[in-house]
Amino acid sequence: MRRGSQMATIDLNSDVGESFGRWSLGNDLAMFNSVSSANVACGFHAGDPSVIRRTCREAAAAGVVSGAHVGYRALAGFGRRFMDISPTELADDVVYQIGALQALAAVEGARVQYVKPHGGLYNAIVTHTALISAALSRVCPDVLYALFTVFVAVYATKELGMTTGDVLAAILIGSAFQLFLIPAGGALTDRFNRRMVYGIAAAATAAWIQVFFLIIQGRSEVMLIIGVVLGLALHAFMYGPQAAYITEQFPARLRYAGRSLAYTLAGVIGGAVAPLIFTALSAASGNWYLIAGYLLLASIVTIVGLAIGRNPQPEADLRLLPNDDAQESHA
Question: How far apart are CA 114 and CA 259, in angstroms?
Fold first, then answer.
């Protein structure tokens, strides 16, 4: 396939070097005729020194790039079982495996060009990163919603002297707009980059909250309505794609459990405590500056969560879903 003046290429990849002693697994020589890169087992989940060296030699002869297929120290389970070991021990094990492969590859005039986790280690990395990303992505929309539906009502009536009716009218109008904007936000991110739209809304929230508190100081009902409507509109463009984004972070077999846990964690660190934090900050400072700072921090947390998460192309989602477990089964 040609794009402009450049030729697009596809890297075909396979796991190799998984034999051990007298036990032979797979036909690596035949595989080298079809792939461009090979994940060489490093002895912890499969392979032994002789197998590793031979695999590096055969891969180099076939012009195939070698990578370190590092895994848990679990030959009996082929590295597919999760092992709860300390981060330091895991880092040492990974460095050990990469070093062993580098040394044996160097003997054959080859070099290790990448690293790919195997089996249980791969799944642990994907799942833990996914859970962190999913939970953090919810913090800003949860805190923002608590601000505009709970704290603003208290702040506007007690600190600004506005009537309860004015505040409720602003919240009801903003909620009415959300009935249309939440599905619109979801539909928009189905057509465009989901993470980008979500992130832009989170960044805009950090900026808008500063403006919001400034414009409502005049105690104008119109400005309060405008401020709440725009604030809840930004919430809609995060809440609309939220379920799809969080679901996409997890491998297919973990989607429902992962999403449920992410929602629970986000509820604890985000929306559940937000009204309490708003009240405490307001009482401590007597003004809105710390409130705005808290929402700025929530926006940053969400942007970081989005940055470390998966970002599948929306139009390819349905094609990618069946492959998640297939990729894991061969990892």
Answer: 31
Q: Which two tokens stand for residue 66?
A: 């070698």
Do residues 174 and 232 make contact, with C-beta atoms less than 8 angstroms apart?
Answer: yes
DSSP reduced 3-state for 179: helix
Contact predicate 107/80, CB 8 Å: no
Angstrom distance (rounded) from CA 307 to CA 285? 32
The reported pLDDT for the residue numbered 6 is 54
With contact defined as beta carbons under 8 Å apart, do 167 and 295 qualify? no
Contact 251, 328 (CB under 8 A): yes
Amino acid at 244: A
Mean pLDDT of the chain: 83
Indicate if the pLDDT at residue 331 is higher than 50. no
pTM passes above 0.70: no
Residue matched to tokens 């192309």: 313
For a pLDDT cut of 90, what percent of the chain falls above it? 30
Q: For 178-188, b where at least 16 C-beta lie within 10 A, e where not — what string?
A: beebbeebbeb
User: What integer is the mean pLDDT of 211-237?
Assistant: 90
**Who's near 234: CB < 8 A, 6+ residues apart?**
144, 201, 204, 205, 208
